[in-house]
Amino acid sequence: MADLRAGSSRLLTASVWGAGAVLAVIVVQMVTGWGSDHQIRVLNDLAYVPATLLTAALGLQLITRGGLHRRERRAWVLLEVAFIGQGVAHVVSLIRDFQPGLPPYPNVSDYLYLAAIPFVVAGLLLLPAARRDRGDRLKLLIDSLIIVAGACMALWYLEIGPMLQYPGADPAVIAFSTAVPVLDLLLVFALIILLLRRPEAGAAVSLLSGSMALKVVADSTYTVAYIQFGIAYRPGSWPFLLWAAGSFLTLLAVHRRLCQDGLTQARRRGRKRLGWLPYGAIVLAYGLIAFVARHQALYPLGGMIFGGVAITSLVIARQLFAQRENRRLAVTDPLTGLSNRALIAERLTELVRQPIREGRHGAVLLIDLDRFKPINDTYGHEAGDAVLKAVATALRAVIRSGDTAGRLGGDEFAVVLPGLPSRAAAEGIAQRLVDALRTPVIFGDAVLGVEASIGVAFRDETTADIEQLLAHADAAMYAVKRSGRGRYGVYTPELDIRVRDAEMRRAVENDEFVVHFQPVVRLTGDGGGMTVEALVRWNHPARGLLMPGAFIELAEETGAVVAIGEWVLREACRQAAGWQTVNLSVNLSARQVTRTGLAETIRDILAETGFPADRLVLELTESVILHPDEATVARLEALRAMGIGISVDDFGTGYSALSYLRTLPVSVLKIDRSFITGIDTDPDTYAVAEALVRLAKAYRLQVVAEGIETAEQARCVTEMGCDYGQGYHFARPMPGPALAELLAARLSPERS
Predict the structure, then answer these.
(1) What span, in angstroms and rounded, lies between the C-alpha atoms of 369 and 371?
(2) CATH class for domain 341-495?
(3) Which stretches make up the GGDEF domain (predicted)?
(4) Residue whose C-alpha is closest to residue 243's, from 265, 271, 214, 220
(5) Is the pLDDT at 263 greater than 50, yes or no?
């Protein structure tokens, strides 16, 4: 089927260019000068028939195949009426060539040509184009009317006026001849409106516009030459070549739209390229006035013309300056003087449209200031503004002349780097920016230190649009923030949050995660049952065994941590169910705690695995329960009612609030390893750790000291009164089978 469609497409293309080759016979005849007037006329009319009939046939196929938007379909229906009319006109003209005695001008074919023009005008005006607000539409109408007014003056002076005064002419001939430039004026109006509106389906419309423009030029040339200079062009002369070229461009336009899927936005720069047209029309109008009045005396008419020209020129100059100033204000950030988001978007659009070439690279840097919010909060917004202005100065000092630096909003900036000789050049600019932004900012008596995290993304095959390019730079920037800030990072596919999120969710489905267990040893009293903490690892198929630090924070950010957390709880309970008298401790993420069905999910997992609720402890990070709402408290109390223990993990690392130790159903407090390191060598560290243990005891909580790595540290925490200890000194995390062997070895001496 695909081969059949490809063959049909090739046949259609060959037919189009074959029709164009037939039209080229007119060029051959013109160059060689072959044939009598009758033979030339027949050859000319015969050459048009394949192109016009094929245009009508393709237009009919375009409007009947479906897939066009309603407005565009209406436009092409009107154009198709014109195509059919032109095709019939050429056939009638060819038939007339073999029937002498018929009126030469105007005849049926001429009336058909003329009748087709209003349908072309209506079709062009209905073609879809970029949306505009009311003000833009009004400016567009004014610009179009200025151009048409200038063209009207030219056509009136050169064609319409002389025709109306032509001596001895038939009134019907005069009426018809006058109608042609009038309808051409309407065609000019439609073309200008269409081009200034930035049409969609751009290539097809450009070809169609070129076709109509050639028709207007050929009509005007033919008429002006006859009226002004008495020259009557015969078939085969150059106005006829313009008409033939226009006919072929119409055929190419319909063929191009037929082969095109959907609409393609025309480049926004097209409006800028055509913005000179209204001023060109004004120049044309004054030029004609000056030409007509060239024989008048300088006083009074000549001086008035020169004065009018001068005043209009000054008005135009003022308008151009105002437009330039408005443009500058519209694309400039008022605080920093850098480009704003709108201009950055324009530059990025230009960047992604550039073809990818060897030795020519494009990149975007996304910059986010580190520690900016504390400056605003501590010193006020004036200090924040001073920092932002200093950042703008640093950006200007580092980037090249062709680069664009802009502020996207808040403390976020972007730099667009086109035409780089290598990727290393972008990284060099990023590093210089990192260094420049470390320079302190003096604000009054304060020295404000600020740094920046920069994400670098390159324009390549993976970036089809600006959203994708910015998303890549954003992913690289946040990877820098997660890994330490104050530097730059280059985007790689591994940093894409959406890709990583999907990868982590697939890993859950494919059982790529594994659970390791680390014993929590009882330090005081009798031995009792052992407690183990379940720790997740990712057995990545390409990157090997990954620790939680490589993926948990991102999983928390994307929400994949919910699926991972439920899998870990289920798998840990399944394995621990076979270990008698072993208590299990499992981490619970912040996102899991906020889910309304938390208690029901855990109850289902316990029922599925057969693990007792009274041997399960759920560990929450301090940040999760720092400001708990009523719903969170209710969920935790529901878990405690099931017999599940609640533990606070990494106590002391967050913004500690002692009130939650009283208000929440917490039973275990785990002191973070940062408070344990150095207790055997530093008296101050020992004193702080001991205070934390006594605080927990005051709230009647069991205390676990994390990160114990030496026997001396174990002795110290035991001396403080810690109930449990956890760390490499006792055991490293291990897979479930290894822990099962450890438990078996522990039970064997007790039985003997």
Answers:
(1) 7
(2) alpha beta
(3) 360-493
(4) 214
(5) no
What is the number of other CB atoms lying within 10 angstroms of the CB of residue 107?
14
| CA gap 563, 570 in Å, rounded | 11
Alpha carbon distance 341, 347 (integer Å) = 10
pTM, entire model: 0.48
For residue 412, pLDDT beyond 80: yes
How many Å apart are CA 686 and CA 684, to the nearest integer?
Answer: 5
| Residue the block writes with tokens 């005051």 | 698
State residue 404 phi and psi, 5-degree precision: -125, 120
Identify which of 53, 59, 205 has the alpha carbon closest to the alpha carbon of residue 126.
Answer: 205
Distance CA 668, CA 676 (A): 17
The confidence score (pLDDT) of residue 196 equals 66
595: left (phi over 0), alpha (psi -120 to 50) or beta: beta
Mean pLDDT of 410-418: 90
Q: What separation, in Å, do the N-terminal and C-terminal C-alpha atoms of the chain show?
A: 79
Q: Give Cβ neighbours of residue 736 (< 8 Å, ≥ 6 apart).
A: 515, 516, 517, 575
Distance CA 672, CA 649 (A): 7
Distances from the Cα of 28 to the Cα of 75, 221, 236, 303, angstroms: 35, 21, 9, 52
| Element at 368 (helix H, strand E) | strand 361-370
Distance CA 254, CA 283 (A): 35
How far does CA 321 lie from the centroid of its chain?
Answer: 32
Q: Mean pLDDT over residues 712-737, rounded?
A: 91
DSSP 8-state secondary structure symbol assigned to residue 82 = H
Task: Compute the distance between CA of residue 69 and CA of residue 594 in angstroms, rounded to an integer.
Answer: 46
Q: What is the residue whose two structure tokens read 């309304």?
A: 596
Q: In terms of residues, how long is the chain? A: 752
The type of residue at 470 is L
Percent of the chain residues topping a pLDDT of 70: 79
**Contact in structure between 405 and 399 (CB atoms under 8 Å):** yes
Q: In this predicted structure, what is the pLDDT of residue 313?
A: 61
Cα-atom radius of gyration of the chain, to the nearest Å?
Answer: 40
Cβ proximity of 363 and 458 under 8 Å? yes
Same fold for the pair 341-495 and 503-751: no
**What are the tokens at 304?**
């008035």
For position 533, what pLDDT does the model report? 93
Q: Where are the domains of the chain?
A: 2-295, 296-330, 341-495, 503-751
Residues 217 and 199: beta-carbon distance below 8 Å: no
| Pairwise CA distance, residues 545 & 402, whole Å | 45
Best CA proximity match to 470, nearest among 360, 368, 334, 338: 368
Give the SS3 label for residue 525.
coil
Output the DSSP codes for 178-219.
Answer: HHHHHHHHHHHHHHHHHHHT-BBSHHHHHHHHHHHHHHHHHH
Give me the mean pLDDT over the 216-242 stretch: 76
Give the three-class secondary structure for 98.
coil
Which residues, in sequence order, are CB contacts of 236 under 8 Å at separation 6+? Answer: 26, 29, 30, 35, 40, 43, 44
**Burial category of 528 from C-beta neighbours within 10 Å (exposed 0-12, middle 13-18, buried 19 and up):** exposed
At residue 527, the pLDDT reads: 56
Give the right CATH number for 503-751 from 3.20.20.450, 3.40.50.970, 3.40.50.150, 2.60.120.260.
3.20.20.450
Of 95, 82, 104, nearest in space to 46 by CA: 95
